[in-house]
Amino acid sequence: MKNNSKSMTFFAEAQQYIPGGVNSPVRAFRSVGLNPVYVKKGRGAVLVDEDGNEYIDYVGSWGPLILGHLHPEVTEAIRECLEMGTSFGAPTERETILARMIVEAMPSVEMVRLVNSGTEAAMSAARLARAYTGRNRIVKFEGCYHGHADMFLIKAGSGALTHGVPTSPGVPAETAAHTINAGFNDLEGLEGIFSAVGHDIAAVIVEPVPGNMGVVPPQPGFLRGLRNITEKYGALLIFDEVITGFRLSYGGAQELYGVMPDLTCLGKIIGGGLPVGAYGGRKEIMSMMSPSGPVYQAGTLSGNPLAVSAGIAALKVLGRPGVYEELDKKSSRLAVGLSRAAEEAGVQVRLNRAGSMLCGFFTDRGVVDFKTASTSDTKKYAVFFRSMLEQGIYLAPSQFEAAFVSLAHTDEMIDRTVEAAGKAFKAVAESRELGIGN
Ligand SMILES: *Cc1c(COP(=O)(O)O)cnc(C)c1O
CATH number of the domain at 72-318, out of 1.10.260.30, 3.40.640.10, 3.40.50.10700, 3.20.20.150? Predict the structure, then answer.
């Protein structure tokens, strides 16, 4: 067993001062029944914990680190900026540079507003959509995540299409009444919702490739269908590309699938590892934002110089030829290896992949939405996760997250990961025989 005494000590101490010991829930490792790993440093695709253990990192800070840790160009940009000051609350030229890079990259974005997180981006895009349409309701898809604003912490009510239920105390029922949950990849269900209350739907918000219920690619025609239905009823289509923007391709999922949303939410990668979010879309819609229009949204640290500098440097690297082909090759090598390892161990795993986002679901059903994702055996995932961690592979501590491949992952690291997975799948097969799984 790895020595994890420092991580244990730090976590015990943290729990006295921070709720649950962490500043974002999934970091607590609860769903895999372990103590979280306290990270000391990262370099490339490798993490080193406080006890000196090394891991190949497939979390990548939950998506931002597509270049790996401490990419020299990103680090240099931050260092240069640091010498000039860390925050002014006044405009800087670099904000325009990042905004222009985003506009040039994303087919549907003509103007963009920078914020500090994906949560802020989605929340603000929804406010703008409501203001633009003069309507109240938002349609989201079960299993998609759009940050933690009240209006998104809503699940489908029992039977009733039109009444959501809060998934967290503190979210008013009145708020839940304005959010409708639809099934991902289910156009017919969405048609039903629109024919019932379409006149009051401001927007449909969707992760074009969901990465927060594991990875679930859209079926052919699904995104196009969203575009058609929203257009027909005068609702806006919001792509939450906080994960997929600059990951699936330079122009995001909208470029890859050829579907133009009205508004786009960004985050993660565009901050180069520092806190940034953004939302953008057609000029005509974005011009409604204050101060050019009446819709209010603001931020003391929005457009923060360090974060924007890091983002610009990251996008510059990603804009070079061959980057996404290389990511795809690495990711395919990993996916093929993992599938083969699972098969050899006799473990049923459905491997979903979109570009450099991967997820192996412990189920024998094809995973196309939240319901089918939920058929995964999370106990098996926990056994798999623990074995991988012990072998120095750092995966997301939950079945319902993506594994992210970065440009810093070498073929040698990927092969080492596949080899470790072979053992981990065997551990899963054996735990079933021991009756630990189910
Ligand atoms: C991470 C994420 C968010 C929230 O971003 P934060 O920066 O964590 O607030 C929103 N939408 C999607 C699709 C995400 O993956």
Answer: 3.40.640.10
